[in-house]
Design brief:
heterotrimer; A alpha+beta (367); B alpha/beta (380); C mainly alpha (561); B: 380 residues; alpha/beta; D-Maltodextrin-Binding Protein, domain 2; ten-stranded mixed β-sheet; 15 helices; 10 strands; C: 561 residues; mainly alpha; 27 helices; 68% helix; 1% strand; elongated; transport (chain C); cell membrane (chain C); transmembrane (chain C); membrane (chain C)
Chain lengths: 367, 380, 561
């Protein structure tokens, strides 16, 4: 992968808006740049605008306003079949009346390729997804996972530079899904193609992507690599949507560059990292990942605020313990601890002290 | 021919003084009906004809006896229904109105009961016997006649291309030079073949002799060939009046009662051509195998419904001639329109200068063969 | 089924509840597993059977039985053998073109019985289907048959008044045992029918024809009329038979005693000296109608004397059974083959126009938002909701030469006033009207199949580089073919059997074979021919269905997505 290519703007959305009914916007003022070779995932709940964005890129929906550029060219008025974009659909959309080989040959047929070249490309694509021996089957005779591979092969067989995937793994069971996630990522990387991937499954997004665009309400909430998204959500929606999170609301009482003190609604004071707060007295929602909650005072900084928590429930999960606590009026506060030899099992009703490093507790917008 | 006697009686009908008021209170004459069922199912044609039956004798009979009458309007497939009912062993009909040829078939097939006319029917009001009064209309042992009807032609009186001429000869049907325009004819060989032969020079009384020869039907079809392109073929009696009214045809054959409606009731510019009109009969048959109570009721009704006065009454509602000679003098005016019915009657001597009588015997023998030939000809 | 389940599902010796190795597997309660399974399955089967029983019964009564009846009627021909049993038997022994005296005698007896039972006219109707004139021949001779042999009867009774007495005949011919039972029956007076007449051995031996003729008379008198032979004078034919017997066997009287012997002796003498004239049955028949002396009449009787006949089928395909076997009808009389072909061709055309008109509409409906589609669907279904009469009137108003369409075309100057188009009362009229009626049957299955084709297929095709047409033709259309198949089968089969609409708007060249079937059902009453035509139509439809299955595959037919 060439770094120079990555930086160039391969796909570009510029001030794109979409409305179906002329009253409400499904996509609001979207600006997004995807460099060549990137695996970009659009993640969000249903109705957030991610699929509409994908369909506009594919050409099946027209943008109400703004420009979509592919490789520097405005493609707003280019019909889908001339965009040269590969696409994998949610239910694969394999043509049921054609064999697997015919399905794969279809994009080559319409491009009037020679017979030999066609056969060779079909074979290579099938081998790539390890489906060589299924060439003469009908899609209906294949399992879901096999159909998925064929759909992938068909989207790639005509060697597009950009491949769109619309929740391609949604219909598979968990184990197969995880396997295919890895495989798709591997193939995309090895071919060096640009992928725009739509899913509502955050794990999938985190596992596969170079960058993730979190959609909500027609707006990209945060566009960042997976780790950053998880570790440093920029707002409370992203924090809530990505991974598990404990949230508490309060008011900022002290603010000092990289640290602030928040007085919770229960009256307790805690340390936090100001992310989305500007001044003292502002209401905020603080967010702490369950695995960053600390019971061992030795690991906390001296003078750090701690809270008293009552154990409500203790769940043994094998590699982890999951403890539900009542903290500062929030009886749904989750703490995850690693199953280590020194770790004690907490009994319901026990009172413990908990705390965290200030940088693990992010003070976000109050929404 | 018994029709000649009818002529005389019908002529009387035209004289005002010869329309004696014979209407009497039938109640005093209607004998009690012992061991009779108290309802009847009557199959008839529906429409204006059934209405004339209802008004002329069914309603009066009901008023006198209080029985209930149910109508079944399927006389156009009467024989098929009777046969199906007989095969099923359940005869729903007590009395069935059919045309003459159908009565012959019902009689032949054993579907209709044979009737002793002298015993079952009332003698004529003029004292004539049943046999004399009904005359030729007693075509077989099962058929109790009601009316004469004729199939004849109506034509539009406003056809510009005819230059003021109007058809007055049956053969004008075949004269497309003088009378251009579409004609409607029944999609059936019956009547059409006879007309074709008459216009091909066969004397009317030899028509069936010619048809009986191997070339006869072909000769008639060859004559019809001369106008085949100008013909719209009808299957239901209501079609010709409609086609005339819509100007789709300039002339067409239908039952004379239908033409009466077009002319007198709908006031269309249509007139009737009375030349070699084809006579036929319509009347009652009684299904074979009715139980005693039903049979008694039907016979009681028939005696009333076919007496001289009742048949004459029917002509107040529809332009068909009563089957009894003794009824002819009683024919008067239309009940609603008040117009004299005689000019529209097939039995009016002015309308009977030339006429044909449907030969039921010949047709019952040759219907199938000729029909097939005719259909093949139509389809060519 | 049960076997397969057990041997396949539970290998021998490894089942959970097995008994001795190799023996039958046992259920928990010790009964053999197989029996136990069968019992539990039987209950399920019974319940399933009960659930479908009403439908099964309904189909049996309304579908299977009528079709069976139709098949039977199309070959059934009992009436000749039932009405003329003696004639049919006698004809078998007499191969000559115009048969001899025995056949005529048998015919006289059969006809006499048939006239009494009023079945001769039905026979006439039946035979008239095969040869015109049979109807009036049988009706006419039926009227005359009663008078046949009247000369002989008069001569015999003139000889001795006693021959007019029913009792004379009974005394001469009856078996003494029968006389005994008859007397007991008469004494009982219980309204039961008279015991069937039985002839004495002597009479049967010496006066065979007389006994035969008398027994025919006795059967009609007793069984049909419910009268007693002791009170009815026999038919003239019995007198003729008696005279014939005595002519053949002048000494027959010797087998009898008393009055019988004396009367027979006297009669025998009268026969011998010609006082009682000899008559020929054949002459009597020919006198009634010349047709009886013609080979054609007897050829028809001979040909249709068997109890089953291919005649209706031959007739239905313009063939006939002539003296030299099966032959084509005269070209002028051929009608049915042409009608079959026309019916098939026009039904195909109608199906074709339904596809052409219905496909775009179904496509539009399937791709519109639900609410708009439902509204338009109501318009599509509108023909279903209007009565046939209303529609027919509408077609006439629209299509006739002075009708709306022609008026508009003339007004627009597209056609001249003198050249108005003939859109009704011909094949065009039938095609237009039938397409109108059958269109919903094409649109509905197409719509539901198209509804079931996900939009993603066409999108996938486009994303793979196909333009609109290629995406439609190579991806969408093949998937809508099952809808076309279902719609076509519906339209075609409905069209092939339609007769009301062609009758109303088809004129003479736009009518179908079904119109002829209807004609034979309700007008000509030739139900046998109607059944044969119907059966052929059914066979043609099944043949086409089979061909369709072979060519397209019946799995490729869907009524819904």
């Amino acid at each position: 992968m060439v770094q120079a290519q990555r930086d160039s703007a391969f796909v570009q959305f510029e001030r794109v808006q979409k409305s179906y009914d002329g009253q409400t916007l499904v996509v609001k003022d979207l600006n997004l740049t995807v460099p060549k070779g990137e695996f970009l995932t659009m993640l969000g709940p249903s109705g957030s605008g991610k699929t509409t964005t994908l369909m506009m890129l594919a050409g099946f929906e027209t943008a109400t306003h703004g420009q979509i550029r592919l490789n520097g060219r405005n493609i707003n008025d280019v019909p889908p079949h001339k965009r040269g974009i590969g696409m994998v659909f949610q239910n694969y959309a394999l043509f049921p009346h054609m064999s697997v080989a015919e399905n794969l040959a279809f994009p080559l047929d319409v491009r009037s390729l020679g017979k030999a070249e066609k056969e060779q490309k079909v074979k290579r694509a099938l081998d790539m997804v390890q489906m060589g021996q299924f060439a003469n089957r009908r899609p209906g005779q294949l399992s879901g996972g096999q159909q998925q591979r064929i759909a992938l092969a068909r989207a790639l067989v005509f060697e597009p530079e950009l491949v769109l995937m619309d929740e391609p793994l949604g219909a598979l069971d968990k184990q197969l899904r995880e396997h295919m996630q890895f495989e798709i990522k591997h193939i995309a990387d090895s071919l060096g193609i640009t992928v725009v991937y739509v899913t509502h499954d955050q794990t999938e997004a985190l596992t596969m992507s170079d960058r993730v665009a979190v959609f909500n309400d027609g707006v990209i909430q945060q566009l960042a690599p997976p780790d950053e998204l998880y570790e440093a959500p920029m707002n409370s929606f992203v924090a809530r949507f990505i991974g598990e999170n404990n949230t508490m609301t309060g008011v900022v009482t002290a603010l000092d560059g990289s640290r602030c003190v928040v007085r919770l609604d229960s009256g307790d004071e805690i340390d936090a990292k100001p992310v989305n707060v500007a001044k003292v007295g502002e209401r905020t929602k603080v967010s702490i990942r369950p695995e960053r909650v600390e019971t061992n005072k030795a690991r906390l900084r001296p003078g750090a605020h701690t809270l008293t928590a009552r154990v409500e429930e203790f769940i043994y999960m094998g590699d982890m313990f999951r403890t539900r606590l009542s903290v500062a009026g929030n009886s749904n506060f989750i703490m995850k601890t690693r199953n280590a030899p020194d770790q004690v099992r907490l009994e319901p009703g026990a009172e413990i002290e908990i705390g965290w490093l200030p940088e693990d507790c992010r003070a976000l917008d109050a929404a | 021919m018994r029709i000649t006697k009818l002529l005389g009686s019908a002529a009387l009908a035209l004289l005002p003084m010869a329309a004696p008021v014979l209407a009497q209170d039938a109640a005093t004459e209607l004998p009690p009906c012992d061991g009779c069922s108290d309802s009847m199912v009557i199959m008839s044609w529906g429409g204006a004809y059934q209405n004339s039956q209802l008004k002329a004798y069914v309603e009066p009979y009901q008023a006198l006896t209080g029985i209930t009458v149910t109508w079944d309007e399927s006389s156009n497939e009467a024989i098929a229904k009777l046969r199906a009912a007989q095969e099923a062993g359940n005869m729903p009909y007590d009395l069935v109105d059919v045309e003459g040829p159908d009565s012959q078939r019902a009689c032949d097939e054993g579907l209709a009961a044979e009737i002793d006319f002298d015993e079952a029917l009332a003698p004529g009001s003029d004292g004539s016997s049943v046999e004399d009064d009904f005359g030729d209309s007693l075509i077989n042992d099962c058929f109790v006649p009601q009316i004469y009807f004729s199939t004849t032609f109506g034509y539009r009186t406003d056809v510009a291309e005819w230059n003021g001429q109007t058809p007055d000869d049956i053969c004008d049907i075949f004269d497309t030079a003088t009378f251009p325009g579409k004609r409607s004819l029944q999609a059936s060989p019956k009547k059409n073949l006879e007309w074709a032969l008459v216009c091909d020079g066969v004397p009317a009384d030899q028509v069936y002799d010619v048809l009986d020869t191997p070339e006869g039907v072909d000769r008639a079809l060859a004559k019809l060939d001369t106008i085949k392109d100008d013909v719209i073929w009808w299957t239901a009696g209501a079609e010709t009046p409609q086609l005339l009214a819509d100007k789709e045809v300039v002339m067409g054959s239908t039952y004379n009662g239908r033409l009466f409606s077009v002319i007198a009731e709908e006031k269309q510019p249509v007139a009737m051509l009375w030349d070699y009109e084809n006579f036929d009969f319509d009347g009652w048959i009684v299904p074979a195998g009715l139980d005693e109570a039903r049979m008694n009721r039907v016979m009681h009704f028939l005696r009333f419904a076919t007496d001289t006065q009742r048949l004459a009454d029917q002509a107040k509602y529809i332009a068909y001639g009563p089957a009894r000679a003794s009824s002819q003098p009683l024919v008067s005016t239309h009940i609603d329109l008040g117009i004299e019915m005689a000019p529209f009657m097939p039995t009016n001597p002015d309308n009977m200068k030339n006429y044909l009588v449907n030969n039921i015997e010949w047709w019952s023998d040759h219907q199938d063969e000729v029909e097939a030939k005719f259909q093949a000809w139509l389809g060519q | 089924m049960a076997d397969a389940t057990i041997s396949g599902g539970l290998p021998q010796g490894r089942g959970a509840k097995t008994a001795s190795p190799g023996g039958p597997m046992l259920a928990a309660d010790g009964t053999p597993l197989r029996a136990s399974l069968a019992r539990s399955l039987r209950r399920q089967k019974m319940r399933a059977l009960l659930l479908i029983a009403p439908l099964l019964l309904f189909i049996l009564v309304t579908f299977v039985m009528p079709i069976g009846d139709m098949l039977f009627r199309s070959v059934e021909n009992h009436i000749v053998a039932d009405t003329l049993p003696r004639t049919v038997a006698a004809l078998r022994d007499d191969p000559s073109e115009v048969p001899g005296e025995p056949v005529f005698r048998a015919m006289a007896e059969d006809l006499q019985v048939a006239v009494e039972e009023k079945t001769h006219t039905q026979l006439g109707t039946r035979l008239n289907y095969e040869s015109s004139g049979m109807s009036s021949l049988l009706r006419g001779t039926g009227r005359d048959v009663k008078g046949m042999g009247e000369d002989v009867a008069k001569a015999v009774t003139g000889l001795d008044d006693a021959w007019e007495e029913p009792g004379t005949w009974v005394a001469l011919l009856a078996d003494p045992a029968w006389v005994q039972t008859q007397a007991e029956w008469a004494a009982a007076d219980d309204k039961s029918p008279e015991p069937a007449f039985a002839a004495s051995a002597a009479a049967t031996e010496r006066l065979p024809r007389t006994v035969e003729a008398y027994q025919a008379f006795a059967h009609v008198t007793q069984a049909d009329d419910g009268d007693s032979v002791t009170e009815e004078e026999p038919w003239n034919l019995a007198y003729v038979a008696l005279a014939d017997d005595l002519r053949a066997d002048p000494g027959a009287a010797e087998a009898f005693e008393g009055d019988n012997r004396a009367r027979l002796d006297a009669l025998s003498a009268a026969v011998a000296d010609g006082t009682v004239p000899a008559v020929s049955y054949r002459d009597m028949f020919v006198e009634s109608d010349d047709a009886w002396g013609e080979p054609g009449t007897w050829s028809v009787l001979r040909t249709f004397s068997s109890r089953f006949t291919p005649g209706y089928y031959l007739n239905a395909v313009d063939l006939k059974l002539g003296p030299n076997g099966i032959e084509m009808r005269e070209p002028k009389d051929r009608i049915y083959l042409q009608l079959f072909v026309r019916t098939l061709v026009m039904s195909l055309v109608i199906t074709g126009t339904c596809i052409l008109l219905g496909y775009p509409i179904a496509f539009l409906l399937a791709n519109l938002p639900e609410r708009t589609a439902n509204l338009l669907m109501i318009l599509v279904l509108l023909p279903f909701w209007t009565s046939l009469l209303v529609r027919t009137s509408a077609w006439k108003v629209l299509l006739q030469q002075q009708g709306v369409i022609n008026d508009i075309l003339v007004w627009l100057g597209i056609v001249g006033d003198g050249n108005r188009l003939a859109l009704i009362n011909n094949q065009t009229g039938t095609i237009i009207a039938m397409t109108h009626i059958l269109l919903p049957f094409m649109i509905l299955p197409l719509y539901s199949v198209m509804k079931g084709i996900p939009k993603s297929y066409v999108r996938a095709a486009k994303s793979l580089g196909a333009n609109d047409w290629t995406a439609f033709w190579r991806v969408y259309f093949p998937q809508s073919v099952p809808g076309i198949g279902a719609g076509s089968i519906l339209c075609f089969i409905l069209a092939i059997g339609y007769y009301i609409t062609p009758e109303l708007v088809g004129g003479t060249k736009g009518v179908f074979i079904s119109n002829r079937i209807a004609y034979h059902i309700s007008d000509s009453l030739n139900w046998g021919l109607a059944a044969a035509l119907g059966t052929i139509l059914l066979a043609v439809v099944m043949l086409l269905y089979w061909a369709y299955d072979r060519l397209v595959g019946i799995d490729n037919v869907k009524l819904g997505g």
